[in-house]
Design goal:
The protein is of the alpha+beta class and 419 residues long. The strands form four sheets. The chain has an eight-stranded antiparallel sheet. Strands 3-2-1-4 form a four-stranded parallel sheet, sandwiched between helices. A four-stranded antiparallel sheet has the order 5-8-6-7, with helices on one face. The longest helix has 18 residues. It is globular.
């Protein structure tokens, strides 16, 4: 069978996801959420079905229609909201392309992940349900302060809170009650916050590890350095390769490989977030997909490896397996854009930045008149700039300079009159 006779059923994704599948010679049937549909996808896909696939009966109906008409050879998702429905349907119809649904559900629900890791002492952390205010106080007494409260499932740091002292539990409990059961991330309604729990706050620098697994052989493609702040839960930047020594790299890689074995992930991409704590690496969470924030573009620029294309190609065996210990040929970084809260008064320079040869992506999501919120989580960021460079230091310095000198994005406090 030639690739022209092979069909992939994609659950969600960006314009580039469809383009990469087409570049591999595949026919593309796309099931897309109404909030993510674009004219480009409609033009490039062979067939498009649009509805809220985060609703399981809807996902089943859409998949049955696609299966009946197109008989796809694999089901693949590269987007958080599409992972579980795609995995459940792939399992139901005995099609390749996704990890087992049980593994996807285990990683998608951070409480379930912690329950599972409790069987693996070297990977376990204390954790506790937050069903009432008293649970916060008792966890603090048991595990110490500060600690973290987070939703069982969600995205972009929404609903993650730090509890630094017992006096903060009432305010945090109020926020938990406000968010619990909500279906909104302020930019879409594709994620539901349903249940909260507590776990210790691990001190130390934060990284993510980009891996691709081949029948249980876990290739650590890149360790991504993250820029974060103690003031909020919005990531401020990503950089590859991370500026760490060989010993720390090996410890991080060994921890992630042990984690993937423990949770039962044997094939496909993973994006695993961890902190390098005083006693070694500690896994915070993991996702059976490639990382966001242009991480795929960073890895492609620095390592020459397109994790998105490998994800789509894997069930068809269209690309060779990756070698262990790939070496970087360059570096790349993303810095996220943020401004003081208020109202946007001016935006300029984005297109000029995007046209520069070293720029991988330049995006701004606001325009004059839009409101800028206080920076709390990733949904509050205003855009990003991603660049490549010969080494990580150079890439980060150059990216910061371009944002400072070439991008105009002004805000004024809301109470002040307009210009």
């Amino acid at each position: 069978m030639s690739t022209d006779d092979r069909t992939v059923l994609l659950f969600g994704g960006k314009d580039a996801t469809v383009d990469k599948a087409r570049a591999l010679g595949l026919r593309v049937v796309l099931i897309q959420h109404p909030e993510r549909m674009s004219a480009h996808q409609a033009d490039r896909a062979d067939s498009v079905l649009v509805d809220d696939y985060t609703d399981w009966p809807t996902a089943q109906r859409l998949a049955e229609e696609a299966l009946r008409k197109w008989r796809p050879d694999a089901i693949v998702s590269l987007t958080e909201a599409g992972l579980l429905p795609a995995a459940r349907l792939a399992e139901l119809h005995a099609l390749p392309g996704m990890p087992p649904a049980e593994v996807v559900a285990r990683l998608g629900d951070k409480w379930r992940m912690r329950e599972h890791l409790a069987r693996h002492p070297s990977l376990a952390l204390p954790f506790g349900a937050v069903d009432r205010e008293e649970d916060l106080r008792s966890f603090g007494e048991r595990a110490g302060y500060p600690f973290i409260v987070k939703p069982r499932a969600g995205a972009a740091g929404l609903g993650v809170m730090r509890v630094s002292a017992a006096r903060e539990t009432r305010a945090v409990w109020g926020r938990v009650r406000e968010l619990d059961g909500s279906r909104s991330d302020r930019k879409s309604r594709m994620f539901t916050l349903d249940g909260f729990f507590a776990e210790p706050m691990v001190p130390g620098p934060e990284f993510s590890v980009e891996t691709f697994s081949f029948a249980g052989r876990h290739v650590v493609v890149a360790v991504t350095e993250k820029t974060v702040s103690d003031a909020h839960f919005a990531e401020l930047g990503h950089a590859v390769p991370a500026r760490i020594g060989p010993a720390d790299h090996d410890r991080i890689a060994a921890t992630v490989r042990a984690f993937l074995d423990a949770v039962g992930l044997a094939d496909g991409p993973t994006h695993t977030e961890l902190r390098l704590g005083p006693d070694g690496p500690v896994v915070i969470e993991s996702h059976p997909r490639i990382g966001g924030g242009c991480i795929n573009e960073l890895v492609l620029s620095a390592y020459g490896i397109d994790l998105a294309s490998h994800t789509i190609a894997r069930p068809f065996r269209l690309l060779p397996e990756l070698p262990d210990h790939p070496a970087p040929q360059a570096a790349a970084c993303t810095l996220f854009i943020h401004r003081r809260p208020g109202v946007v008064t001016a935006v300029d320079g984005v297109q000029r930045l995007a046209s520069r040869p070293e720029v991988l992506a330049a995006e701004v999501s606001v325009r004059p008149g839009d409101r800028v919120r206080p920076l709390r989580d990733n949904w509050d960021r205003l855009g990003l700039l991603a660049v490549t460079g010969p080494d990580t230091d150079t890439a980060l310095t150059h990216c910061a300079r371009l944002l400072d000198e070439e991008l105009l994005l002004r805000t004024r406090p809301e109470e002040e009159p307009g210009d």
